[in-house]
Structures are given as structure tokens and as C-alpha cells.
């Protein structure tokens, strides 16, 4: 067994060698390096995914509460560059690049998954459409002190398998598929991304535990998508910090629900 197989031995036993090969061949683009994407970055890098971090902001003291990869030494540096430096220390096989700039559609090329944290509606739509055009899986997330959400678009249809049974008798199901839609196909859903004015002042900052929960859930789903094992989120996940509950809603255009 080579060194890389030793590092990923637990995952190989969990997902299988074929799935780990897919994970190792995947490139993920993380745009907007705030609390959730910091957690996503950590989990994907540890799993063996190659990651590109993109952000045009400068690290500040306010980022230290959720960015454990950059640390105090990163304050004053570009947020993506500072985070990438810490992420490369996660393991000998960590593959992390940084782009000190904002979101651009051209960045999608060469990647298999895009995770966009934050951004206004125009940026979300542009990123989603760019991913659709290139057959790239798209995740959009945002989080604050009240909770967070994840929107997922894996293309018009996405095929996956689930595991039946446990232990030595476990086997994979026949292929299953589920439908997805673009963000701009869901006009009413845009309202879910808007925080009520009355609570903006209280929830405009991120909390580390919410970022950890959201990032863990999102990264786990990305791994499912890569391996095509297990049912991925379809297509909105909403986390409510007041109840500590994460609920998945299948929100498709009305014509698809009939």
C-alpha cells in the first residue's frame, strides 16, 4: 500500500477505492472565503480534493472567529491567499491554489464543483448559469448568526446510487435520479435568501459553530456528489440555529411539481 492509500485508508474502506479515485481527481472552486467555505475547504482537502480558493477581500480581525486556517498572521493579507497557506498544512497531499480576486465566470473552467459563499443575487445567477453551461455542480451557501442555507444545482438530472444493507452483505442500489433547476428558475425562492430587516443588526456576523455545521453538511454533500453514492441535497437545505435543525426542501418549478 502506497503512502497516499495509507492516508486515505479509512475513506477507501468507507467509500471504496473507485470513489476515492474520483475524489482524488476532482477539482473544487470555492468562491468567497468566509466561515462556511473555510470549513468546506478543510473537509475537502482532507478528503483528497484539489481546491482553488477565490476572494478579493483582505483578512481582518473580524475574520479570525471563523477562519481557523489563516490565523492572526493572515490579517492584512488577501483572504484566499492567507487561507490557502494554512490549508496546505493539512497534509502532505494537500493541493490548494489561491486566486486573489473576485468571482468571474472564466474561473469555472477546469473545475468539477463550485461552492459560492455569499454574493448578491446577480452573482449567484451568473455563477449558477456558468456552471450549468459547463456541466459543473453548483452550490451556493450563506450563513449568519440566525442560521444558514445551501442551494444545490447538479444539472437537469443527477444519477446516484444508495447502499442497501450493511457489512459484508452491503450492495449498491440500481441507479436513481433526481431533478434540479437553476436558481433563476425559482423566483419565489429568492425571498429565502433575504434576512428580515428587523434582525439584520443581530445576525450580520457569522458564528464559528454555525459555520462548522453548515460547512460540514455541505462538504459531505459534495463528496456524495463526487462519488455518486448516497442521495445528495435536493435542492435547498435550511439550517435554523434557534432549533439546531437542518431541513431539506425540494423546491422545483411549479410545472415540475405537478
UniProtKB/TrEMBL annotation:
A GO biological-process term: protein sumoylation
Gene Ontology annotations for the cellular component aspect, listed alphabetically: cytoplasm; SUMO activating enzyme complex
UniProt superkingdom: Eukaryota
Main location: nucleus
Pathway assignment: Protein modification; protein sumoylation
UniProt subcellular location: Nucleus
Keyword annotations: Nucleus, Ubl conjugation pathway
Domain THIF-type NAD/FAD binding fold: 8-245
Keyword Membrane part of the UniProt annotation: no
GO MF terms held by the record: SUMO activating enzyme activity
Gene3D superfamilies documented for this protein: NAD(P)-binding Rossmann-like Domain (3.40.50.720)
This protein's record includes keyword Nucleus: yes
Entry's family note: Belongs to the ubiquitin-activating E1 family.
PANTHER family noted in UniProt: SUMO-ACTIVATING ENZYME SUBUNIT 1, UBIQUITIN-ACTIVATING ENZYME E1
Protein name: Ubiquitin-like 1-activating enzyme E1A
Species per Swiss-Prot/TrEMBL record: Chrysophaeum taylorii
Amino acid at each position: 500500500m502506497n503512502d497516499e492509500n495509507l492516508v486515505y485508508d479509512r475513506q477507501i474502506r468507507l467509500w471504496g477505492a473507485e470513489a476515492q479515485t474520483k475524489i482524488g481527481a476532482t477539482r473544487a472552486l470555492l468562491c468567497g472565503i468566509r466561515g462556511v467555505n473555510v470549513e468546506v475547504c478543510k473537509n475537502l482537502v482532507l478528503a483528497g480534493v484539489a481546491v482553488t480558493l477565490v476572494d478579493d477581500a483582505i483578512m481582518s480581525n473580524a475574520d479570525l472567529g471563523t477562519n481557523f486556517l489563516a490565523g492572526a498572521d493572515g490579517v492584512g493579507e488577501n483572504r484566499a491567499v492567507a487561507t490557502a497557506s494554512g490549508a496546505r498544512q493539512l497534509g502532505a497531499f494537500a493541493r490548494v491554489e489561491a486566486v486573489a480576486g473576485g468571482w468571474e465566470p472564466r474561473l469555472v473552467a477546469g473545475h468539477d464543483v463550485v461552492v459560492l459563499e455569499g454574493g448578491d443575487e446577480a452573482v449567484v445567477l451568473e455563477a449558477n448559469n456558468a456552471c450549468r453551461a459547463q456541466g459543473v455542480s453548483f452550490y451556493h451557501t450563506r450563513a449568519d448568526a440566525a442560521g444558514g442555507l445551501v442551494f444545490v444545482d447538479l444539472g437537469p438530472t443527477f444519477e446516484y446510487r444508495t447502499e442497501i444493507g450493511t457489512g459484508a452483505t452491503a450492495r449498491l442500489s440500481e441507479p436513481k435520479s433526481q431533478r434540479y433547476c437553476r436558481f433563476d428558475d425559482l423566483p419565489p425562492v429568492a425571498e429565502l435568501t433575504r434576512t428580515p430587516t428587523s434582525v439584520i443588526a443581530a445576525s450580520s456576523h457569522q458564528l464559528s459553530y454555525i459555520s462548522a455545521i453548515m460547512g460540514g453538511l455541505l462538504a459531505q454533500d459534495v463528496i456524495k456528489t463526487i462519488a455518486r453514492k448516497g442521495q445528495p441535497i435536493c435542492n435547498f437545505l435550511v439550517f435554523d440555529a434557534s432549533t439546531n435543525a437542518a431541513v431539506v426542501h425540494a423546491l422545483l418549478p411549479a410545472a415540475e411539481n405537478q
